[in-house]
Every structure is written in structure tokens, then in C-alpha cells.
Write a structure and sequence with these properties.
This protein is mostly helical and 75 residues long. The protein contains 3 helices and 2 strands; from the N terminus they run E-E-H-H-H. Strands 1-2 form a two-stranded antiparallel ribbon. Bound molecules: FE2/S2 (inorganic) cluster. FE2/S2 (inorganic) cluster binds next to loops.
């Protein structure tokens, strides 16, 4: 059973580095990543052509909505 407050979605987000949605969400949630650059550093997603950066921003907003409900502060 997942301990995460989001679905296991294995759709590819970053085609350059072949990284899926769930891998990115888990990294953001577990490591409290705040910026796209943090996601690039920890997962490699976004480290190529950068065309997935908008999607990564959206994923950051989604995960931080959950984290803020749990009392964590993004800003
Ligand atoms: S698709 Fe993510 S860096 Fe190119």
C-alpha cells in the first residue's frame, strides 16, 4: 500500500531522461524539493531539452499542496 497522498501514475514526464510522474512526485515529497533545479539534481528529470520543465512545475505545485496540508512550508 502506498504511503503517499497521490496516485501511482507512471506516465513518462521527461522523455530525455526517461523519468515518470511517480518517481518525480516521490522525490519531491520525500526530499521536500522546492524548485525544478532540485528535481533535476535528484531525479535527472528535466536535465535535457527542458521541454518538460512546465510539467515539473505543475507537479511541484500538486505535491506542495499536499505537503502544505501536512504543515510543511514551501516559501
Ligand atoms: S523531456 Fe525532460 S529534459 Fe527533455
Amino acid at each position: 500500500m502506498s504511503t503517499y497522498p497521490f496516485e501511482e501514475n507512471h506516465d513518462t514526464v521527461c522523455y530525455c531522461m526517461n523519468v515518470d510522474n511517480f518517481t518525480i512526485k516521490k522525490a519531491i515529497y520525500d526530499l521536500k524539493l522546492k524548485e525544478v533545479d532540485d528535481v533535476v539534481r535528484e531525479t535527472k528529470a528535466g536535465g535535457g531539452c527542458m521541454s518538460c520543465h512546465m510539467t515539473i512545475e505543475t507537479i511541484l505545485d500538486e505535491v506542495w499542496a499536499d505537503l502544505e496540508k501536512e504543515g510543511f512550508k514551501r516559501y
